[in-house]
Design a protein that fits this description.
- The protein is 42% helix and 16% strand.
- By secondary structure, it is α/β, with parallel strands linked by helices.
- It folds into 2 domains: 4-97 and 205-217, 3-Layer(aba) Sandwich (Rossmann fold); 100-202, Rossmann fold, CATH 3.40.50.
- β7, α8 (189-196) and β8 (200-201) form a beta-alpha-beta unit.
- It is globular, with a radius of gyration of 16 Å.
């Protein structure tokens, strides 16, 4: 498939890639760019800490280099946005990270956003990134559900934790919009939003939506990179 948007799951868990593929299915529209999803086989089973995020940068950039001729844009589907800036140096095509896009989308839907993370050790790297983006004053809180990537396969338990943490972010921390903190949570977005009664952003959907706009409108194409 040429001239498509390539969504890269930086972990090696194929079930997460399938969840991502399902999440972006509504964005496959007639006349729009194709959307393909790829698993980074060299990645860890889950990007759950900073060292996991750091470990995927080189193989991620290598895959982007290999796929550049056929892809119109790339999306890095992990809320750490691992390798985002290195990847932008590795290609002339647009590269979008789901954390950046998900948070920016949340800021258009509410004043204070909350992030639902998978594990407590995921939170510090999220907070560093949010501070680097300059939007930490709009952050209501970042709370974990206490489930690793593999445990997200239990859909009932995962949704229950998501709802509990989402309500805490809304009621105790003042969040009026939520960002899902892992691409593996994608299938629960609709049910979570119904339960918490505030907008819920699935960040891969947000990033792919922005990528479609970049591709269709040609923003930034033909500009040299420095």
């Amino acid at each position: 498939m040429r001239d498509h948007i390539l969504v890269i799951n930086p972990n090696s868990t194929a079930s997460v890639t399938r969840a991502i593929d399902d999440a972006v299915a509504p964005l496959r529209i007639p006349g729009g760019p194709g959307i393909a999803c790829l698993t980074l086989d060299e990645g860890p089973p889950g990007v759950e800490c900073q060292s996991d995020a750091d470990s995927v940068i080189l193989p991620l950039c290598r895959v982007i280099g290999e796929q550049e001729a056929d892809a119109a844009a790339f999306v890095i589907a992990c809320l750490s946005d691992p390798g985002l800036f290195s990847a932008r140096e590795a290609t002339q095509k647009p590269v979008l990270g789901i954390a950046e896009c998900g948070i920016l989308t949340a800021l258009t839907l509410g004043h204070r956003f909350g992030v639902i993370s998978i594990l407590a050790r995921s939170v510090p790297r999220h907070l560093r990134y949010i501070a680097a983006m300059g939007v930490n004053q709009r952050l209501a809180g970042d709370l974990p559900i206490g489930l690793g990537i593999a445990e997200l396969a239990d859909g009932r338990a995962t949704l229950g934790r998501l709802v509990d943490v989402g309500r805490r972010l809304r009621e105790q921390h003042g969040a009026d919009v939520l960002v899902m903190g892992c691409a593996g949570m994608a299938r629960h977005r609709d049910n979570l939003e119904e339960a918490v009664q505030i907008p819920v952003v699935e960040p891969t959907q947000a990033a792919v939506t922005m990528a479609i706009g970049r591709v269709r409108l040609g923003w930034g194409q033909g500009l040299s990179r420095h």
